C-alpha cells in the first residue's frame, strides 16, 4: 500500500513479464500509482470480506473484526460499493469505495458461499459483471 520500493519492484517485474496484464490493487496505493505511471492498466479493487479503516485501507488481520463472515452482510456491502454508496468503516463512519473489481479471499471460511451471495446480489441490483481488459 505505502512501500514505494516494493511497489516499484513489482511494477518492474510485471512490465518485464507482460505489460498488457491488468493489475489490481487498493485505490490510493503506491502500487497502483506507480503501475499507472508505467503505463500498465490499473484496476481499483475492493475486498468483500475485509473490514476497512476510515482511510480506506484494510484492517490488519491481527485485529478482531478484520475478516467478515456473514455472507448476507458482505453481499449488501458489495452492492453498496458497486453502486457508489458508502459502507461502514471499522470505526462506524461512512466510507465510499468505487471499485472496478471486488475480491473474495479464497482462504476466508465459506468463501464459495460468500462469492455466490455477492454475485447474486450484484446481479439482482443490476450490476454488469464482466472481465476487465
Total tally of structural domains? 2
Secondary structure: number of strands = 5
Inertia-based shape: globular
Structural class: alpha/beta
**Order of strands across the widest beta sheet?**
1-2-5
**Unreliable runs:** none
Helix content: 25-40%
InterPro entries: Glyco_hydro/deAcase_b/a-brl, LamB/YcsF/PxpA-like
Protein name: LamB/YcsF family protein
Organism: Angustibacter aerolatus
Summary, kept brief:
The protein has 4 helices and 5 strands. It has 133 residues and is an alpha/beta fold.
Outline the structure in words:
The structure is a single chain. By secondary structure, the protein is an alpha/beta fold. The protein has 2 domains: 40 residues, no CATH class; 84 residues, no CATH class. 37% of the residues lie in helices and 14% in strands. The mean pLDDT is 94.
List descriptors:
single chain; alpha/beta; two-stranded antiparallel ribbon; globular; 133 residues
Topology:
Blueprint lengths: L3 H15 L4 E3 L4 H8 L4 E6 L23 H12 L3 E3 L5 E3 L4 E3 L7 H14 L9
Parallel strand pairs: 1-2, 2-5
Antiparallel strand pairs: 3-4
Amino acid at each position: 500500500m505505502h512501500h514505494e520500493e516494493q511497489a516499484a519492484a513489482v511494477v518492474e517485474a510485471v512490465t518485464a513479464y507482460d505489460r498488457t496484464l491488468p493489475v489490481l490493487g487498493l485505490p490510493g496505493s503506491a502500487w497502483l500509482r506507480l503501475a499507472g505511471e508505467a503505463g500498465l492498466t490499473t484496476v481499483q479493487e475492493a475486498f468483500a470480506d475485509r473490514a476497512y479503516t476510515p482511510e480506506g485501507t484494510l484492517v490488519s488481520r491481527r485485529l478482531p473484526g478484520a475478516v467478515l463472515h456473514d455472507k448476507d452482510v458482505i453481499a449488501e456491502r458489495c452492492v453498496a460499493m458497486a453502486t457508489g454508496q458508502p459502507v461502514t468503516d471499522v470505526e462506524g463512519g461512512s466510507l465510499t469505495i468505487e471499485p472496478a473489481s471486488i475480491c473474495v479471499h479464497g482462504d476466508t471460511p465459506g468463501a464459495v458461499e460468500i462469492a455466490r451471495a455477492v454475485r447474486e446480489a450484484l446481479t439482482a441490483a443490476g450490476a454488469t459483471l464482466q472481465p476487465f481488459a
